[in-house]
């Protein structure tokens, strides 16, 4: 005789939005317990089509009317060991933009999550998120159309930045809006759901684009002991407009052979361009006696500290090799203070 755990199938309740035009959503059910061999089915034929009964892959047909049905999963060898889950189609009641990554490098796309909610058919008046909302009409617009462009409102919602490797990753919403970052700046992004029978639901967020952090100096940086040099950087995330005091520029030398004297913005006052003065204090050598000078590094990090309006800030990093060396020879160049006399 074999004793097994009762079967449980998940998700227990899956909700999709009512919409003017029929739309087919795909849903995968998960089962636990039993002997790990399951069969899925449903008698709600107008709502649920079982595409793969052993893998739990379903097709849900959503239309303009609220509906509710059941999915059952059972142990293939012993059908009485079974469980049921609920599938429902309900009207959209609210829309929001969950906390998300809001900054991206120029030339890339940023996908903003959109979450929509309905009223639970099984839990009183409790608000429940839609599993997917790809079929509903969404309108999106940016306030700065020169620097930003909405390229798609049909993206899969991004995963939460809090999701960790090896753990179950959580989607931030039921839909994603992709925005192309054309040039540096800030913009508001408004997303609205415009059903034909109700007042519109909308939400707004702020997004930012920034140039990559880069050093303007070309070529190697080699300094004599005791000498200093100014490194000129541009780019990186800009001060967040809702909390500009949270912006930082962290600069560190990788060893005591290199000292960071000062970090200051460009004379023009442009906070996106800054200078770092470094001082070479001693020669950096390898471990063996025959080793030559080896580079030490200047590590630069630019970004904003997390805040309620920017919970997942971007950070730009750059590592610059610097060689502190003793001069191998000295060359004297005469300084002519007056024109040479005619013979």
What attributes does this structure have?
343 residues; 3 domains; mainly beta; Immunoglobulin-like; five-stranded antiparallel sheet; four-stranded mixed sheet; 26 strands
Structure write-up:
This protein has 343 residues and is an all-beta fold. It is 0% helix and 50% strand. The protein contains no helices and 26 strands. InterPro entries: Ig_NUP210_6th, Ig_NUP210_7th, NUP210-like. It holds the Pfam family Ig_NUP210_7th.
Radius of gyration: 30 Å
Through-space gap between termini? 120 Å
The chain-level mean pLDDT equals 88
List low-pLDDT spans: none
Write down the overall geometry. Answer: elongated
Report the total helices. Answer: 0
Helix content: under 10%
CATH fold-level assignment of the largest domain: Immunoglobulin-like
Major beta sheet summary: 5 strands, antiparallel
Number of strands: 26
Question: What share of the residues does DSSP label as strand, in percent?
Answer: over 45%
Number of domains: 3
Structural class: mainly beta
CATH class of the largest domain: Mainly Beta
> What is the N-to-C order of secondary-structure elements (H for helix, E for strand)?
EEEEEEEEEEEEEEEEEEEEEEEEEE
Provide the CATH architecture of the largest domain.
Answer: Sandwich
